[in-house]
Amino acid sequence: MIGAGVVGLSATVALLRRGVDVRCYESGEPMGERSVGDTRIFRLAHAYPDMVLLAGRSRALFAEWSERAGVTFVDEVGTVVSGAGAGRWAEAMATAGAAHEMVEAGSPLLRLPARSFAGPALIDPAGGVIRVDRIRAFLVDSVGNRLRRAHVDAVEETGPGVRVTSGTEADTFEAVVICAGAGTSALAAGVGIDIPSALEHHLRFSFPIRPAAPEPLQCWITESADGLLGTYQHVAAPGSWAVGGEIDPALVTWEGGRRAAEQASLAAVTGYVAKHLPFVEPRPLAQVYCAHNPDLGDGLRFVRRGRVLTTYGENLMKFAPLLGETLARACVEGSTPADAGGI
């Protein structure tokens, strides 16, 4: 397993439960890059029915994880999707048979940090806050000494198997899964697998929640507003509200550098909070940074070449336990899982 993000760790745990001798390579901190942060949004709501169904299966597996760990991994406060496109998401949920409701701003069913917003709103009652901090501790403990802190330089299929080279050391395995986040494209290219490689800088920021805010606040995904092409929002640490915004791509290019992207993102998101979220103070408390692939959206992709399997997509945290089981089964069987959703 190359990469100890949430997907790599989940797959490693699933393989260990099957009795497979597995090693997980990671050069940095486990879940320290694209899986970074202590909370994320869980949702059944997606624009594609197959993704709704997959999210439902993942939610059931999160519940199994919670039972094994003795802690709650998803705080089920609900997720709201607002804007003109919410109707399409509602259609997908209806097709998949998932519980949902369409409402307008001002509905008593809404508990958001704003009183008004553009467009109707879809309420996904099964949505909520993923406790990434708890999941990280659970997975790292479950993987134990199968985690190897090393940077993988190359993956190469040979006669007897797949050689993984790390510095001056090389090991050969029967099969390899590459799920190394921003590093996946380069490693996959070494075995002839071509996947999207573009990167941009992405940030989200946390702000204090005012005492008058409704409780418990629902997670919230919005469409464009005042320079932001969309936002995702949820409770972060107790008393703080996380807001991630999709801003003008020209302001967060990889070539432009992280510092410029941080400044542009902070200005845009803080301005949005000040204008649109009366129950949130526009005073940044913390930020979370990751490298983001602008060419990917909601969707799961799997590509195999010989004994090497790669997986990629964005917003994969909510599918972590399902992806772990799916990749483990594919490793054992030598199969390729079916793609899902749209990218």
Task: Throw out a few tags for this protein.
single chain, 343 residues, alpha+beta, FAD/NAD(P)-binding domain, D-Amino Acid Oxidase, Chain A, domain 2, 8-stranded mixed β-sheet, 4-stranded mixed β-sheet, 28% helix, 28% strand, globular
Secondary structure topology:
Blueprint: H1 6-17, E1 24-26, E2 39-42, H2 49-69, E3 74-75, E4 79-82, H3 86-96, E5 101-103, E6 121-124, E7 128-131, H4 132-143, E8 147-149, E9 154-157, E10 162-166, E11 169-173, E12 176-178, H5 184-189, E13 200-208, E14 219-225, E15 228-235, E16 240-246, H6 258-276, E17 286-292, E18 299-305, E19 308-312, H7 320-333, E20 340-341
Parallel strand pairs: 1-8, 4-14, 12-19
Antiparallel strand pairs: 2-7, 3-7, 4-6, 5-6, 9-10, 10-11, 13-16, 13-17, 14-15, 15-16, 18-19, 18-20
Number of helices: 7
Distance between the termini: 24 Å
Kindly report the spatial arrangement of strands forming the biggest sheet. Answer: 5-6-4-14-15-16-13-17
Instruction: Report the uncertain regions.
Output: none
CATH topology of the largest domain: FAD/NAD(P)-binding domain
CATH superfamily of the largest domain: FAD/NAD(P)-binding domain
The helix/strand series, from N terminus to C terminus, equals HEEHEEHEEEHEEEEEHEEEEHEEEHE
**Helix and strand composition category:** alpha+beta
Total strand segments: 20
- Name of the CATH first level of the largest domain: Alpha Beta
* Radius of gyration using CA atoms only: 20 Å
Shape: globular
Q: How would a crystallographer describe the biggest sheet?
A: 8 strands, mixed
Roughly how much helix do the residues carry, as a percent range?
Answer: 25-40%
Mean pLDDT: 94
Q: Indicate how many domains the architecture comprises.
A: 2
CATH architectural name of the largest domain = 3-Layer(bba) Sandwich
Beta-strand percent range: 25-35%
